[in-house]
Write a structure and sequence with these properties.
Blueprint lengths: L1 H22 L17 E2 L6 E2 L7 E4 L1 H5 L16 E5 L6 E5 L15 E2 L3 E4 L2 E2 L7 E2 L10 E5 L4 H4 L6 E5 L8 E9 L3 E12 L2 E12 L8 E15 L2 E15 L6 H6 L21 E18 L2 E18 L2 E23 L2 E23 L5 E26 L4 E21 L12 E25 L2 E12 L27 E15 L7 E22 L4 E21 L3 E16 L1 E2 L1 H4 L4 E2 L11 E9 L7 E10 L2 E2 L7 E2 L2 E15 L2 E10 L7 E4 L15 E3 L4 E11 L1
Parallel strand pairs: 7-11
Antiparallel strand pairs: 1-2, 3-10, 4-5, 6-9, 7-8, 10-11, 12-13, 12-39, 13-14, 14-15, 15-16, 16-17, 17-18, 18-19, 19-20, 20-21, 21-22, 22-23, 23-24, 24-25, 25-26, 26-27, 27-28, 28-31, 29-30, 31-32, 32-35, 33-34, 35-36, 36-39, 37-38
Length: about 725
């Protein structure tokens, strides 16, 4: 870490000297100048603020990156975010998202496919993340996204249960010009997608609509998926000082899960699903492993300015969910509702001509509850005749926070400090049944009623400082705490032979607590000489060290969890965007890290043998190196067209804490081309083609952490193969009125 800090300080000093030198050079040289259009505004501190002034590592995904994606999986749009490892598990919407090591554990048979942990996701300011920290991606509209902002730093002091960061997606159109956009996509393995986007100005404000209908036959056995999304919004001004936004979203998402392969299965036929009874009984194919989610949500955000220096922002939402699961020899039905909101008061106080203080105080509240009915699987892999148990499962997440930001020297230096208190509670009520005959109403059916609750509380501090050396150059440092409570199913009783766990909750599982120390630099360099080879360079570099206690480790494919004593993650991240002469642009990201267990002893109860020490081992699921580079060419003689290639590299890493099961390193290339051609009047046609994994590289895209050992086989099932070579063609029409 000392080397990282020294290198960053040296780089900052050199960049500062270089900037000052260039300002006094001749007119034809490269200069650094303050341009308001280059000052990207973000909401990392729960307020609108210039990115260069925020003491956090933040990536704003360029709009051009969003335009050329299928809009199906987050891996397509987050590949250029440093520190973020996003892996497609089956080529569809089911992805594994990890930022700086947080979220790595959510991969396994009992670890909720189609969801993420350790990170918080928001769409238009409304949380997609549930009160217990799990996030399903059903409602995330990537085709309708206008911007994506990723906070890579520890953000718990402001956002709560989110030690790994924040992913914030906006679907509000950037243009106020009325438009209609139609897109049709076709691709390999039966991929089809039809999208509609439209927006218009009304007396009430900007009204917009987005729909997507996607189907994918899948390249692996038992990996078919279909997704329909509806997204509508109203952006309205109720007065000169008040803005009201209303968002209505819904989705129907049905996807099948092929399961992990053993190394020999992967070598022989990577397209197969897990259908060997020596590995799982019944197999993924026999139980038709799948998830079917239907949900809808309405949310509002309100911004009111009492004066130039006093603002109030509020958010409210209500969401309903109906979920079906065929998995683990059980069929489950979920009926849930999810409600919540927040309020944030901002007060700016002017102390002197070049000094001011901004105070933020607010609270967040989320509550989710509902019933779960458990059925035996029928021979057709559907639900049995009667429920074997019914369970009510709920969670409440409440937090309050305070942040003070002091700006000095006419905005050149800012110091911020924050504190947050969180209280997260789980509760359930379970009825277990046995049946004689066909009488569901028989008194003999009730065997046991189990009730339980568990609460987690945490106080999280944060301190940061930013020095804006030049208008387009800043350095920052921050230190703060993080908290990530176990998800609801992680607090269930441990399914371990010989271990007695009190009813309904696992007292052995504690929240993940962390302390992050970070230093970084952000810079924008603009060339005033249009003949220079480099016209514009934007980069950010961040170095971090994260000390973690009580890392949650899945065993039995997520059937139970244990807490590792201490782990440490150190790393350096680089993000760069460069515009060259001749219409060339280069986007890149690279992450180098070292992720090790400092103190981790696995008790013999869990290991099934003598007590094992994993001190010094590499953390499972985390490569020490991964990088992406995307080269784009927009010809000067044909500016409406582009040609693009992307390279993604992921280094080798382990799938287990014992460091015996390894995923090999891989590098894949994508190639794409497109054009947006004006036809007549205000009609445009868009066309692009993409060849993913152009050289048909066979690789391991994702792994299951601490996998199950195959029955009667000397192998573990942990491999999720990557998508082979696949093409995609998109044709669209745009009317701009």
């Amino acid at each position: 870490m000392k080397k990282i800090v020294s290198s960053l300080i040296a780089l900052c000093c050199l960049t500062s000297v270089s900037a000052q030198t260039k300002k006094t050079s001749t007119k034809d040289s490269t200069t650094i100048r303050e341009i308001s259009t280059q000052e990207v505004v973000v909401t990392a501190t729960r307020q609108k603020e210039i990115n260069l002034e925020v003491p956090l590592a933040i990536t704003v995904v360029p709009q051009k990156i969003l335009e050329n994606a299928r809009g199906y999986g987050l891996d397509e749009v987050l590949s250029l975010v440093p520190g973020a490892l996003v892996q497609s598990r089956s080529g569809n919407q089911d992805v594994r998202v990890t930022i700086r090591g947080f979220g790595a554990r959510g991969a396994g048979e009992r670890s909720n496919a189609g969801t993420s942990r350790g990170l918080r996701f928001y769409q238009d300011g409304i949380p997609d993340t549930e009160p217990d920290g799990r996030t399903a991606f059903d409602l995330i509209d990537l085709s309708g996204a206008s911007s994506i902002e990723v906070i890579r730093s520890n953000a718990s002091a402001l956002w709560g249960n989110a030690a790994g960061g924040i992913v914030s997606i906006s679907t509000i159109p950037t243009t106020r010009t009325p438009f209609i956009s139609l897109t049709n996509q076709n691709g390999s393995f039966g991929f089809m997608k039809q999208s509609l986007r439209m927006g218009t100005n009304t007396d009430a404000g900007l009204l917009y609509l987005s729909t997507n209908n996607t189907s994918f036959e899948g390249w692996r056995e038992n990996s078919r998926s279909s997704l329909f999304q509806f997204n509508a919004g109203l952006v309205s001004s109720l007065g000169q000082n008040t803005k009201l936004n209303v968002f209505l979203v819904g989705a129907s998402n049905n996807f099948k899960i092929p399961g992990p392969l053993t190394p020999s299965q992967y070598d022989s036929a990577a397209w197969q699903a897990q259908n060997d009874t020596r590995v799982y009984r019944p197999t993924y194919v026999q139980r038709d492993e799948r998830r079917f989610n239907r949900l809808g949500r309405i949310g509002t955000t309100l911004e009111h300015n009492f004066s130039e220096n006093i603002t109030l922002n509020t958010m409210t939402f209500i969401q309903t969910k109906y979920l079906e699961r065929s998995e683990r020899n059980t069929f489950r039905e979920f009926n849930r509702y999810h409600v919540g909101g927040n309020a944030i008061l901002g007060i700016k106080t002017t102390i002197s001509d070049d000094m001011w203080l901004r105070t933020l105080v607010g609270f967040d509240e989320q509550y989710q509850d509902g019933g779960i009915a458990f059925f035996e699987l029928s021979p057709q892999a559907d639900k049995g005749k009667y429920p074997r148990s019914i369970k009510s499962e709920g969670a409440n997440n409440f937090g309050v926070f305070l942040q003070e930001e002091l700006s000095l020297m006419d905005n050149k230096v800012s110091v911020s400090a924050g504190l947050r208190y969180d209280n997260i509670t789980y509760f359930n009520n379970s009825n277990d049944y046995s049946f004689r005959g066909d009488s569901v109403g028989s008194n003999s059916r009730n065997v046991a009623i189990i009730e339980g609750s568990k609460s987690f509380t945490q106080v999280t501090p944060k301190f940061g400082i930013t020095w804006r050396i030049e208008p387009t150059l800043s350095v920052y440092a921050n230190v703060g705490g993080g908290v990530e409570v176990p998800a609801g199913n992680e607090t269930d009783p441990a399914a371990v032979s010989g271990v007695t766990v009190p009813a309904a909750v696992n007292p052995l599982v504690e929240p993940i607590r962390s302390i992050t120390t970070e230093i970084g630099v952000k810079n924008i360099i603009i060339s005033e000489n249009q003949h220079n080879f480099v016209k514009e360079l934007t980069y950010d570099i961040a170095g971090y060290m994260i000390n973690v206690t009580n890392d949650l480790i899945p065993y039995g494919s997520g059937g139970y969890y244990v807490s590792a004593g201490e782990s440490r993650r150190t790393g350096v991240e680089l993000g760069v965007q460069t515009q060259f002469i001749g219409g060339f642009a280069l986007y890149g990201s690279a992450t180098m890290s070292n992720n090790t267990y400092q103190e981790y002893t696995l008790d013999s109860i869990y290991s099934g043998k003598a007590t094992v020490s994993y001190n010094g081992n590499q953390m499972a699921g985390l490569p020490s190196l991964f990088a992406t580079a995307r080269l784009r060419w927009t010809p000067d003689f044909l500016p409406q067209a582009f040609l693009e290639t992307e390279m993604r590299h992921v280094g080798e890493y382990f799938a287990d804490d014992a460091n015996t099961q390894q995923a090999a390193a891989y590098t894949v290339f994508d190639i794409s081309a497109g054009i947006n051609q004006h036809i007549f009047d205000k009609l445009f046609v868009r066309a692009n083609a993409r060849l993913a994994n152009a050289f048909d590289q066979k690789y391991i895209a994702s792994v299951w952490i601490n996998p199950d050992k195959a029955r009667s086989l000397p192998e573990y099932a942990f491999i999720e193969p990557g998508l082979p070579q696949a093409w995609n063609i998109s044709i669209g029409l745009d009317w701009k009125f």
